[in-house]
C-alpha cells in the first residue's frame, strides 16, 4: 500500500521542530528533520516571541524534510500577530507569560461577570487568554493600526501560503468561541469592544489552507504544488489526537512545558462547579471537547534548571528519586508560578508559607516539583471524572514528560490508576495523522488511535505505594 510523507511543524515554548511522518494503512513513523530553539526575548516593552527566527526555522526544516505530500502546523495557543492593511506584521507577538494582563481580568468581569463568561465560552480563567490580552492592548497604537489578527500557527501558514484563516481548535483558546455552537461568541466580543472582524474566517482540521507560495518553494527546494493542510493547530489538540487509547474510559495528560490533564468529551461542561474548579472546555477534533485543567508542568523544573546553570537532567532525576517522597508539595496549578525567574526561591517560599520543610538541594527541589505535579495530575483526573460524570480506568500520558519515568510512576501512584506513557512526540504525530486522514490514508479518530497503539512504543506503569500518603499530601494543600 502507498506510504505518504507529511511534514509536521510543531512549535513549543522552548523549541520548534519540523518532523516528517511517513504514514501508510498499517505503518506510522516519525523522524526529526530539524529542531531549533525558541528563545523569547525581553525587550523594554516586555516579553516577546522572536517569530521571524521561528519562521526561519520552519523554512530550514522544510528544506531538511525534503519533498512531502503536505504540511501541517501546530503551536502553543492564545498568542497572535497583528497585521496592517498591507499584510505586514506589526511588531513581535507578545508572549503569554508577559505581565501586561495583570489586573485586566477584574476589569473584564466588571463588564461581563466571570460566571457569564464561563457559561458563554466554557474557558478556564487564565490571565493569558487572548480575550484578556486584547483588552490589555485596547488602547495600543498597534491594535489601532491592525487590520488582521492571526494566531501563531495561522500567521506561519499565511507566510507560507499567502492565505488567511483562523483554525478552530486554537481559536477556542481565545475565550471568544462558544463551545456549543463552535462559532464566535458575538455577544461577549461586542460587550468587551473586541472587533471580531480582525479574525479571518474559521477553518477546521482537514480544511485546505492553501499551497506553498512560489518563493517558499524556491527557498526550500520543494517542488510544487505542496498543500498546507489545516490540522488541530493548537498543539494540545494535536497531542490529544495522538493519545493511543483503545477505549472510551481514559483520561489524558499532555506533558511538556505544561501538563494539560483531563478528558475527551462530546459536549462541554459549563456548570458552576466546573468553573469553580477552573476546568476548560477547549475544542478538539471531530466535534469533541477537550475538558482539562492547565497545570504548570515541567516549566517548574525547566526554570529551576535554568537557574542552576543547566546541570545534567539524568543526575538530577536520580537524586530526586532518592529523596524522601512527599516531604513538601506546592500547588502546581497556581498561576503564581506563571512568570519566569527565581523559581527555586518561589518554590521554597510556597513550602515555607504552607508550613512544610523547605527543599534545599537541587535533588530535593526536583523531588518537590515531581511530587507536586503528580499530585496536581491526581486532582485534575479525579475532579474531571466527577465534574463530567465520566469515569476512567486508565491515564494516558503523552508528550515530552513521558521521557521522565519518575514522573510517570508518581502519576500512576498518585492517581491510583495504570498509566500508559507515550508517544513523546504526540503533537507532531497528531498533526501528521490529521493530514494523513485528510488525504485518505487513515479513517476516523478511533482508527487513528488503533494505528498509534500498534505502531508506537508505549510503557505501562502500575500504581504502587501508599494511597493514604497522597490523600494526606492533598489535604496539606487544601
Ligand atoms: C501547551 C499550550 C497549552 C496552553 C499553553 C499556552 O503547549 O498550548 O495548551 O494553555 O500552551 O498557550
TrEMBL record:
Keywords: ATP-binding, Disulfide bond, Kinase, Nucleotide-binding, Rhamnose metabolism, Transferase
Annotated InterPro entries: ATPase_NBD, FGGY_C, FGGY_N, Rhamnulokinase
Pfam family, one: FGGY_C
SUPFAM superfamilies xrefs: Actin-like ATPase domain
Taxonomic superkingdom: Bacteria
Carbohydrate kinase FGGY N-terminal domain boundaries: 66-239
UniProt keyword Zinc-finger, yes or no: no
Domain Carbohydrate kinase FGGY C-terminal: 251-437
Family, as annotated: Belongs to the FGGY kinase family.
Protein name: Carbohydrate kinase
Amino acid at each position: 500500500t502507498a506510504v505518504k510523507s507529511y511534514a509536521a511543524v510543531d512549535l513549543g515554548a522552548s523549541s520548534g521542530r519540523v518532523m516528517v511522518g511517513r504514514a501508510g494503512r498499517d505503518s506510522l513513523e516519525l523522524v526529526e528533520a530539524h529542531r531549533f530553539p525558541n528563545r523569547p526575548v525581553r525587550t523594554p516593552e516586555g516579553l516577546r516571541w522572536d517569530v521571524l527566527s521561528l519562521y526561519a526555522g520552519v523554512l530550514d526544516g522544510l528544506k531538511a524534510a525534503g519533498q512531502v505530500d503536505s504540511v501541517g502546523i501546530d503551536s502553543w495557543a492564545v498568542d497572535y500577530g497583528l497585521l496592517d492593511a498591507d499584510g505586514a506584521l506589526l511588531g513581535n507577538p507578545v508572549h503569554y507569560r508577559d505581565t501586561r494582563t495583570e489586573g485586566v481580568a477584574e476589569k473584564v468581569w466588571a463588564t461581563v461577570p466571570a460566571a457569564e463568561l464561563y457559561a458563554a465560552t466554557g474557558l478556564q480563567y487564565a490571565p493569558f487568554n487572548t480575550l484578556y490580552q486584547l483588552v490589555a492592548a485596547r488602547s495600543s497604537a498597534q491594535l489601532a493600526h491592525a487590520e488582521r489578527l492571526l494566531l501563531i500557527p495561522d500567521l506561519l501558514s499565511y507566510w507560507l501560503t499567502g492565505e488567511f484563516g483562523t483554525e478552530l481548535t486554537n481559536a477556542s483558546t481565545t475565550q471568544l468561541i462558544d463551545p456549543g455552537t463552535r462559532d464566535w461568541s458575538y455577544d461577549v466580543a461586542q460587550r468587551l469592544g473586541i472587533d471580531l472582524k480582525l479574525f479571518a474566517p474559521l477553518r477546521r482540521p482537514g480544511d485546505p489552507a492553501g499551497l506553498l507560495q512560489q518563493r517558499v518553494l524556491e527557498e526550500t527546494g520543494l517542488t510544487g504544488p505542496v498543500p498546507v493542510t489545516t490540522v488541530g493547530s493548537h498543539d494540545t489538540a494535536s497531542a490529544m489526537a495522538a493519545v493511543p487509547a483503545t477505549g472510551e474510559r481514559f483520561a489524558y495528560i499532555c506533558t511538556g512545558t505544561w501538563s494539560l490533564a483531563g478528558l475527551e468529551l462530546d459536549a462541554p461542561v459549563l456548570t458552576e462547579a466546573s468553573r469553580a474548579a477552573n476546568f476548560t472546555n477547549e475544542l478538539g477534533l471531530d466535534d469533541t471537547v477537550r475538558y482539562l485543567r492547565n497545570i504548570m508542568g515541567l516549566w517548574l523544573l525547566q526554570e529551576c534548571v535554568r537557574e542552576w546553570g543547566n546541570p545534567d537532567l539524568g543526575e538530577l532525576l536520580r537524586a530526586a528519586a532518592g529523596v524522601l517522597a512527599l516531604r513538601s508539595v506546592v500547588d502546581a496549578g497556581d498561576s503564581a508560578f506563571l512568570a519566569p525567574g527565581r523559581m527555586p526561591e518561589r518554590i521554597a517560599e510556597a513550602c515555607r508559607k504552607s508550613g512544610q520543610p523547605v527543599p534545599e538541594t537541587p535533588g530535593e527541589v526536583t523531588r518537590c516539583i515531581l511530587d507536586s505535579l503528580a499530585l496536581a495530575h491526581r486532582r485534575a483526573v479525579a475532579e474531571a471524572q466527577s465534574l463530567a460524570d465520566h469515569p476512567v480506568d486508565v491515564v494516558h500520558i503523552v508528550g515530552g514528560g513521558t521521557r521522565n519515568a519518575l514522573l510517570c510512576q508518581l502519576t500512576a501512584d498518585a492517581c491510583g490508576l495504570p498509566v500508559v506513557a507515550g508517544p513523546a512526540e504526540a503533537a507532531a504525530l497528531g498533526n501528521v495523522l490529521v493530514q494523513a486522514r485528510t488525504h485518505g490514508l487513515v479513517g476516523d479518530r478511533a482508527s487513528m488511535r488503533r494505528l498509534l497503539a500498534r505502531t508506537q512504543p508505549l510503557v505501562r506503569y502500575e500504581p504502587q505505594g501508599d494511597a493514604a500518603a497522597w490523600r494526606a499530601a492533598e489535604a496539606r494543600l487544601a
